[in-house]
Amino acid sequence: MKRIRLFLYALLLVCPALFAAAPSLTLPGDSLYQLPLALQDQQGRQFDLASMRGRPVIVSMFYTACSAACPLTIDTIDQIRHALNVPDHAAPSVLLVSIDPAHDDVVNLAAVAKAHQLDPAHWRLTRTTAGDTMAFAATLGVAYRQRTNADFSHNAVIALLDENGRIVARTSVIGKVDPAFVSAVRERVVRY
C-alpha cells in the first residue's frame, strides 16, 4: 500500500511538469501550420503541412505547365539556397504548392523536379485539393486566375516560414536574388 501511495505522489509531481511543457506544442495564431493542409509530393508521399514544423522552410506556389514565371521562381529559390553559402543539408527545405491540382499529378510534379534537378530530400513539389489551394494561396498572398484549361495568371511570392510556420520574410523578386530576403533566410538558418 505504501508503494502505491508513493507512486501516486510521484505521479502527481510529474504530471504538472508534463502539462507545463504542453504550451510549447501549441502553434502561434498566425502560423500557416494551423491550416489543415494535406499534401502529396512528387514522389507520391502524402503529408500534412504541419509536419514541416521545426525548421525554416521556403514556400512558394507554381504550376507545372507554366513556361515563364514558375521556372524562374524555382531557379530563384535555388539561387537563394546557394547564396546562403551553407551545406545543402543546412539550407531550408523548399515547399512548392501547385495552383493547378487538377492537372499537376505526381507524374507532372516529378517531371518538373527532374527537369530542374531538384533533390527530393530538400525540395517538395506538391498538390492539394482545389479548395485548400485557394486557402493556402490567400494566406501566402498569391493571387491567381485560370485563363484557359492549362494557363493561369498569377503573381510570384516566395516566403520564408520560421520553425513554427509564421511568415517572417517575403519577396516578389524573381530572376535574381533579393539580398534582403537572403539576409532574412540566413538569419533563420544560423539558429539551426
Explain this structure to me?
The chain is α+β, with helices and mostly antiparallel strands. It has a single domain (26-189), classed as Glutaredoxin (3-Layer(aba) Sandwich), CATH 3.40.30. It is 35% helix and 22% strand. It is built from five helices and nine strands, in the order αβββαβαβαββββα. It has helices at residues 2-21, 69-83, 106-115, 130-140, 179-189, and strands at residues 38-41, 46-48, 57-62, 93-98, 123-127, 144-148, 151-154, 158-161, 167-171. The relative contact order is 0.19. It comes from Paraburkholderia dinghuensis. Disulfide bonds join 66-70. This is SCO family protein.
Record the SSE blueprint.
Layout: H1 2-21, E1 38-41, E2 46-48, E3 57-62, H2 69-83, E4 93-98, H3 106-115, E5 123-127, H4 130-140, E6 144-148, E7 151-154, E8 158-161, E9 167-171, H5 179-189
Parallel strand pairs: 3-4, 4-5
Antiparallel strand pairs: 1-2, 1-5, 3-8, 6-7, 8-9
How many beta-strand segments? 9
Supply Rg: 20 Å
* Spatial arrangement of strands, main beta sheet: 2-1-5-4-3-8-9
Poorly predicted spans: 3-24
Question: What is the name of the CATH class?
Answer: Alpha Beta
* Secondary-structure element pattern, one letter each: HEEEHEHEHEEEEH
Could you tell me how far the N terminus lies from the C terminus, measured between alpha carbons in angstroms? 49 Å
Disulfide bonds: 66-70
Signal peptide: 1-20
Pfam family, one: SCO1-SenC
InterPro entries: SCO1/SenC, Thioredoxin-like_sf
